[in-house]
Amino acid sequence: MNDKRPIIVAAGGTGGHLFPAEALSNALCARGFEVDLVTDERAAKYGGAFPARAIYEIAAATPRGGSMLARAGALTTLARGTFMAWRLIGRIRPRAVVGFGGYPTVPPLLAASLLGAPTLVHEGNAVIGRANLFLASRVDAIATGFETLGGVNAKTAAKAHVTGNPVRPMVIEAAKADFPGDADGKLRLLITGGSQGARIMSDVVPAAIELMPESARRKLVIVQQARIEDIPRVSETYRRLGVDAEIRAFFNDLPFKIAQAHLVVARAGASTVSELAVIGRPAILVPLPHALDQDQAANAKQFAASGAAIVVDQSAFSPQWLATTLQDAEANMAGLARRAIAAKEAGIADAADRLADLVLSVSAAKENKL
After folding, report:
1. Are residues 261 and 303 in the same domain?
2. What share of the chain is helix, strand, coil (3-state, %, to 5)?
3. Contact (Cβ atoms closer than 8 angstroms) between residue 306 and residue 285
4. 140 with 46, same domain?
5. Across residues 278-296, what is the average pLDDT?
6. Is residue 178, in this structure, part of any structural domain at all?
C-alpha cells in the first residue's frame, strides 16, 4: 500500500463546512497523513490557511428552488462535477474521502462511492442536511456533531457515530480562558449573527438596551457583529445611550470574543453552538426561522438541554423580552457562571481527533475487505 496516498476532505459554501474540515485536516496532518481539499469556487477563499497538500475545485450547484430550467442546469453541473471527481479520485486513489455537507460534497463522495473508496460524511447539525441525506445510503459511515441525529431512518442511524463537531485550534486556545470575573460590576455581552450576519440582532438588541434603566445600561460592555450597512445606526444608538460598545462586520478572533463574554446572543448554527460548548459560555439562542430542515432549532434544543442556553423563537425575540432577560442576567451573575459550566460539560473538545480515529478505522476496515 502506498503510504503517501492522501485523505480527501470535501467541503464548500461556507465557513461552517470549511472550519470543521480544517480541524480534521490538522488532526490528520499531526498524525503524519497528507490531506487534499476538494471544494468549489465559493469556498476557495477559505483555503489560504487550509493544511492541504493540494486544493481542487470541482463543479457543483444546488438543485433546489428556482425554475425547472435552473434545477436542470444544477443537475447537469453536478453530473459534470461527478465526472471531474471520478477522474481525480481514480488518479489519486485516496485512503478515504470525507464530506462535510452541502452540495459541493456530492460529486466527490458520489464518485468515491462508485469507485469503491472508503467514504464518510460528517453532519454538523442535529438534523441531517439534504446533501448528506442523499449520500447517506452510499457512504460507509456518518459522523455526527450532536448526540441525536434527526431526519434519518433506522438503517441510516445505524451508520452514525457521535464524534462532535471539530473546532479550530483558535477555539481550543480560547477554551483555556476562565469564565470572566464580575468584580467591576460589568456584564459583558457578545452579539453575533453567524457567518452571514443577522439584521434581527441590529434591530432588536440596541432597542432592548434603550429600554433598560440607565443604571442597568451602565453595567454593559457590548461586542456586536453587524452587517456593514447596519453599523452606523447600531453604533449611533450605543453612543447616544453612553454604552461601551465595539461594533464590527467581522471578528477574525471570534472564539476569543466568546471567551471574554459572560453571555452570548447568537444564531444556532452548528459551528456556533459547538464553539460555545467547547469554550463554555452561556447563550441566548435565536434559531434561524423558516429553515427547510429546522436544523438550527434542533441544534439549539440539544444545547439548551444541558442548561447552558435559553432558546427564543425569532417571533418572540422582542426588545421588551430581551431587555427583561438581560436585566435578569445582570442580577444573577452566579447563574451565568453555572450555565457556563453546563456549557463546557456539553462540549467535545477532542472532536477532531475522534473524527480522525473514525476516518482511519473506516479506511482500514475497507482495505482489509479488499
Report:
1. yes
2. 50, 15, 35
3. no
4. yes
5. 92
6. yes
Please indicate, yes or no, if residue 88 is contained in any of the structural domains: yes
Across the chain, where does the E strand assignment appear?
7-10, 35-39, 54-57, 96-99, 119-123, 141-144, 160-162, 187-192, 220-225, 244-248, 263-266, 283-285, 309-311
**Domain enclosing residue 308, as ranges:** 172-346
Percent of the chain exceeding pLDDT 70 equals: 93
Same domain for 309 and 163: no
DSSP 16-69: HHHHHHHHHHHHHHHTT--EEEEE-TTTGGGGGG---SEEEE------SSS-HH
Q: Based on the structure, what is the number of domains in the chain?
A: 2
Q: Residue 209: which CATH number?
A: 3.40.50.2000
Q: What does the pLDDT average to over 242-270? A: 96
The reported pTM is 0.91
Residue with cell 452540495: 103
Q: Which of helix, strand or coil describes residue 223? A: strand
Q: What local confidence, expressed as pLDDT, does residue 2 receive?
A: 47
Residues 177 and 151 both lie in one domain: no
